[in-house]
Amino acid sequence: MSLQRIVRVSLEHPTSAVCVAGVETLVDIYGSVPEGTEMFEVYGTPGVDIYISPSVERGRERADTRRWHFDTGLEIIVVMNSPSNDLNDSHVQISYHSSHEPLPLAYAVLYLTCVDIALDCDLNCEGRQNRSFVDKRDWVWGPGGYGAILLVNCDRDNLNCYDQDNRDQQVHCLQDLEDMSVMVLRTQGPAALFDDHRLILHTSSYDAKWARVFHACGPEDSCEAYRHVLGQDKVSYEVPRFHGDEERFFVEGLSFPDARFTGLLSFHITLLDDSNEDFSESPIFTDTVVFRVAPWIMTPSTLPPLEVYVCRVRNNTCFVDAVAELARKAGCKLTICPQDENRNDRWIQDEMELGYVQAPHKTFPVVFDSPRNGELQDFPYKRILGPDFGYVTREPLDSAVSGLDSFGNLEVSPPVVANGKEYPLGRILIGGNLPGSSGRRVTQVVRDFLYAQRVQPPVELFVDWLAVGHVDEFLSFVPAPDEKGFRMLLASPSACFKLFQEKQKWGHGRALLFQGVVGDKPVNTVSINQVLSNANLISFNKFVQSCIDWNREVLKRELGLTERDIIDIPQLFKTERRKAVAFFPDLVNMLVLGKHLGIPKPFGPIINGRCCLEEKVRALLEPLGLHCTFIDDFTPYHMLHGEVHCGTNVRRQPFSFKWWNMVP
């Protein structure tokens, strides 16, 4: 129980006070004391608990056990636990005594009206311990924690509206309420009390920027019943008692956590005493609840797929057909963005990242629209945003966007444990430059957004050595049927040279790369012997390997990986304007749909009728129970410095782990 306020009693006339159920009221008896007072007694009517606190060391005792020596250090504490039926239907009586007088010197009476006021919401989230008594003013992480959760209402439930649901101050359809958190004001006590007392729901001007509150002012099956009462320019609201003892409010988040917003919001209900015409209102009691806005969460490639996205462009019909067949095998939906919408922009991985938000009452996917703004820039907002599918973006206002701001440069690991700390939702991986260098970096607004979500702390990798500059050019994750649950695949020039040297040793040095490539432009074939005698290619790939090795050590340290968790996939790179691009289709840039892998067809050396690169990849991955399908992306993607992963995107199942059970 928390201390409420001090009430002073008077000998001249009875005093009245309002107390709140379960909340302590401190009674001051020292302001008006009869001369000669040495002792006092204090009693209350049934339902009034009175305690005396002689000192901090001795604690409190029940007041009605004996007569007390008058001492200005004593505190009288009154508590009522049940609301009153009528005004002033309970009281406390204090009698003042002297050892020289047989009768009390005087009496003071304090009349009490008890009202029960609580501002409630769902504090004990799914998977947490049930806690009946928690401090609603706090929000605590972990399975033993507590606190209410608020979703950013960033979907569009009414298709007749152009904007997201949280962009205006109206409820356009009842389904919109399902994305909001319910906050309930419960009041019990004499109705007459509210003739001269007011209930004010309020928040700070800072918190009002990030959330909006609607009050159900009529029948809850009508959109017109929901009145916008708090948020943005509204910081307080006098609560009318439309429904007697219980008023329901619906709260929507307006923004995700970010550099200027921690994600925490507070709402308060205050009971004001307006009974004295000669004085201004005085506060009696305030109750507070705290919400945390749910973070945007990424899904790693090891989670089960639900829906695959791909663009149909001028020259990729066979590619789209191959992706469609892979999606069919994996049992997931396929969505094709037509050419009149993508305007020949095929890089759907770069345009957006598909994640989700979650609260105990609702989970829905949210697309994060990248700031690259190519010809696909309208697709996430116009085609993906909809009922129970949210949208968020971050656009830099004062800086240029680089290739690193495309979301092929935004990945997330599976769950890991590193340096003694658990990351049950994995860690975000973004690419940038080396410490202290002046190369390309992800724009600050995107970095701020990713770091502010807190549940998937980012790891920054070195990608500025790549011409495109994306993490998906040299790494990916595939599921594995063991305790670890996954393997990390890394592109490896060393593994490729080793493979080619073995084939050369066995007399296959004349086997050719790029045989069978079909496209608008002829592609020159290259033999294994030519590759292994190309000093510039070898030297450049030693540099590439050193860059990948740098990242390898960072990933081992930050994700808690060992060499057993890493599979080296043979891959070579070539130089273009002093940066690296894939020499043959980039094998790690794959589409992962459960056990089904859509891997760029490398057009490697044909030995005994089979591509030795494909055979090597199968030998590395099929023992994990994975099925390798090699997709020809050479002309429509590889020639444009992208591959299968770059040209596809996947919506996946959310984690079974609830984010509020972790401790950042």
TrEMBL record:
Residues 1-113 form the Protein-arginine deiminase (PAD) N-terminal domain. Catalyzes the deimination of arginine residues of proteins. The active site is at residues 350, 470, 472, 646. This is Protein-arginine deiminase. It is an enzyme of class 3 (hydrolase). Its EC number is 3.5.3.15. One of its GO terms (molecular function) is protein-arginine deiminase activity. Residues 115-273 form the Protein-arginine deiminase (PAD) central domain. One of its GO terms (cellular component) is nucleoplasm. Belongs to the protein arginine deiminase family. It catalyses: L-arginyl-[protein] + H2O = L-citrullyl-[protein] + NH4(+). Its cofactor is Ca(2+). It comes from Mustela putorius furo. Its main location: cytoplasm. Keywords: Calcium, Cytoplasm, Hydrolase. It comes from the Eukaryota. It is found in: Cytoplasm. The keyword Cytoplasm applies. Residues 284-661 form the Protein-arginine deiminase C-terminal domain. CDD domains: PAD_N.
